[in-house]
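Entry for the shared binder. Reason: the reviewer on the internal report wants the predicted structure included alongside the sequence.
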Amino acid sequence: MNLIVCRDRLEQGVQQLEQPLSKRIVDQLLEYLLLLDKWNKAYNLTAVRDPFDMVSRHLLDSLSIAPFIRGKRLIDVGSGGGLPGIVLAILNPEKKIDLLDSNGKKTRFLFQVKTALNLNHVEVHHCRVEAHQPNQRYDAVVSRAFASLSDMVQGSRHLLVDKGRFFAMKGLYPQQELSELEKGYKVEACHELVVPFEEGKRHLIELSTLQDPSN
């Protein structure tokens, strides 16, 4: 892995996103990239094999949603290799960020990242989303991995505080998925994302519930 080339790519992308980052944050993002590349060889964390491509498809893709995510307590559901949760955690050391995945290999990797990067505000959960019963619910549920919006909101609705938000990362605008949502959900916003060096369409769908999730 050519760390200098990856750093240049990351810094160019950050400039395009107009998100100034400290050297500490850039260093941590690259340390995470090194771990992702190393563990990917054995754990198959991502289909993207080239770290240079991981910069845009994973790091910059996750950074592109950062301006829209609100709340002090967040959970990344189906976190996989830590996207976008680890990136959001590196950016926001003042927030409480939980990472949840049902795959044991992936949660072991996430715990390794948490330890290596001293992300003490991060907690890793190895379970299915339906089985996760936190002591305190979250301000936001974030996901990049769910197959559909309907699966996301139905599976994780119990995790959300009243007036909380679901944030779903999608490619093309998910018109069909939105039309299949049950009543009780409101589309608060659809943010069209521009990910540096990536040509494909990207969107962040922001949803809320029309009633308290405990009802």
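Summary line for the report: The chain has seven helices and seven strands.
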